[in-house]
Design goal:
globular; 7-stranded parallel β-sheet; disordered C terminus; alpha/beta; 3-stranded parallel β-sheet; Rossmann fold; 13 strands
């Protein structure tokens, strides 16, 4: 199996792919990772062990390096030919297009891992050509593998037939998550109660909503807010903190290699995303026994078992998030019990179950030797 990433980075997609690959190896499935951009091992999340072979396309994300396209494409096609199935780990844009084309040239089945809402990036992170390329790809995939049932409607809107869409929920390494949560926390953690949020500082993560909700609640119910992450919205969020006058209770320490030591000691993990396909950090918080307040989207609803394991609120609503936050700070026992219930069922969040389904899918889609010979000589 070949899994293609645009690059290695400290994001949820990379973390999940590495965990998935390691589990697949444990199931005697040969896995190769392909990074379209040059391989930077320093960008691989530190808690993941790199136990799989990695190929670098060596293609930088700049027009200046277009001359490298032929070499990168040749490497990708060659890697695809050595695999039974090609997996696009990025669900939109040129990385998806490159993976699909390489798979077709190599005459291998191609699937895409649909981590979130691909069309949500149209106009925001993807230009018109990239959006058009994304829409061209989806009807041509052998399978669209959604991280949550709620994403089926999204892929259907892009032309994926119902029998070409399936759900394989994301998962985490439960044991490693709990070990990292027990690590000594940073010295700068606030004294007293605080809630935490973790993720890329981007508009779709909804941290502006969380900051405004915090500002409304903090006078009546004193607490601090810690937002871990970095991204393009940092200056905007810092400006919002200053405008609301909450600089004394909002901490934004930037990227942390281990945010779980912060999450495990917080009153709650807040996940105010406007778009979210699954929610690795939500699952990690739950196996640490940390209460969760999240927006009612496909991914969080899947992880939170439709509200059994945490509070779900309307996406983009400051009023709804402020009310949920205030209710939890007044009476925390309900969500603590829900998180304890989730932790007791921690195996349900393990990446292992999803890895087994990928092995089954590969066996279903991979051509036998006779079919493969026909394809190669067609």
């Amino acid at each position: 199996m070949l899994i293609v990433l645009p690059a290695f980075a400290g994001n949820g997609v990379t973390r999940y792919v590495l965990d998935l690959a390691n589990e697949l190896i444990g199931l005697d499935c040969h896995v190769t990772l392909f990074s379209i951009q040059p391989l930077d091992l320093g960008e691989i999340p530190h808690e993941n062990s790199l136990a799989v072979p990695v190929i670098s396309g060596g293609l930088y994300a700049s027009r200046r390096y277009l001359y490298r396209w032929p070499v990168a494409a040749a490497r990708l096609v060659r890697a695809a030919r050595r695999s039974d199935m090609v997996v696009a780990a990025w669900d939109n844009g040129y990385p998806l297009l490159c993976t699909l084309l390489a798979g077709r040239v190599a005459r291998r089945p191609v699937i895409a891992q649909v981590a979130s809402y691909p069309t949500a990036d149209f106009g925001e992170y993807l230009n018109a050509r990239e959006a058009k390329a994304t829409l061209w790809c989806y009807p041509r995939l052998d399978k669209a593998v959604c991280a949550a049932d709620g994403l089926h409607e999204e892929v259907a809107s892009m032309g994926v037939a119902p029998d070409h869409a399936l759900t394989i929920s994301w998962g985490i390494d439960v044991e490693r998550t709990q070990a990292l949560g027990a690590v000594e926390p940073p010295e700068w953690l606030p004294q007293g109660r605080f809630v935490a949020a973790v993720g890329r500082l981007a508009k779709d993560k909804g941290f502006d909503v969380l900051i405004e909700a915090h500002a409304r609640v903090r006078e009546e119910l004193p607490h601090s807010l810690v937002i871990v992450g970095q991204g393009e919205e940092q200056q905007t969020l810092e400006g919002l903190v200053e405008r609301l006058g909450v600089g004394d209770t909002v901490l934004m320490p930037g990227f942390l290699t281990n945010p779980l030591s912060v999450v495990s000691r917080s009153e709650a993990l807040c996940a105010p995303s406007r778009h979210e396909g699954w929610g690795l950090m939500i699952a990690e918080a739950l196996v640490l026994g940390t209460p969760v307040i999240a927006t009612d989207l496909a991914g969080p609803a899947n992880v939170l078992a439709a509200g059994r394991y945490g509070e779900m609120v309307e996406p983009g609503s400051v009023d709804a998030f402020a009310e949920a936050l205030a209710n939890h700070l007044r009476e925390p026992e309900r969500l603590k019990r829900a998180a304890a219930d989730a932790r007791a069922n921690g195996d349900s969040f393990s990446v292992r179950a999803g890895a087994k389904k990928y092995v089954q899918l590969c066996a279903e889609l991979a051509p036998d030797e006779r079919t493969l010979r026909k394809r190669l000589h067609a």
